[in-house]
Amino acid sequence: MSSGKATSIGFRDVLLCLNAVLGALVLIVLSAINPAAKDDPAQLPGNLVASIAWPAGSTDVDLWVQYGDDLAVGYSHRSDRVWSLLRDDLGTANDDTPLNAESAFTRGLPDGEYAINVRCFGCAKVPVPVSVEVRLAEGGVVWRATVDLLKDKQERTAIRFRMAGGQVVPGSASSVFKQMKRGEG
Ligand SMILES: [Ca+2]
Ligand SMILES: [Ca+2]
Description:
The structure is a single chain. The chain is of the alpha+beta class. About 20% of the residues lie in helices and about 35% in strands. The longest helix is centred in the first third of the chain and has 37 residues. The termini are far apart. The structure holds calcium ion (CA) (2 copies). One calcium ion binds next to strand 2. The site of one calcium ion (CA) has 6 residues, from loops.
């Protein structure tokens, strides 16, 4: 019996499905924020979009994002100078869809470091494969990968990189851990 093979195919299907969900979500986010940009070109929101998606169910994963030394943005601090979180998805508790996903976007693209973390807030079952995508509104996908969260309350840096002049600085990307979540919970 090739149960291992069957498992890996199932896992791959889940990832393909998550990627499709992420793609749809990014389109929704971009279409939601771009009209504002057209109305007021001096205030360009959504220049950089970070999105995560994880398998359907009651698992609660959180997206945390940070610009430089600003306060990190996540469910308990939803907006700062550069980043804003669109929604804290609690799993199945606070929406009527099987979708488990969160997105954050930037207003503007100041030079400096951008970091994207994922954290298990309520993960009864692990590991949790989290699809992560970072996209420039003008310029396409910067980075896309799956990050596995291995235990409840685990926080991992998916990607961090520097921007200069609206471009990713070559060689600046890493996944060196940067703590964002502060305090309990
Ligand atoms: Ca969440
Ligand atoms: Ca949900």
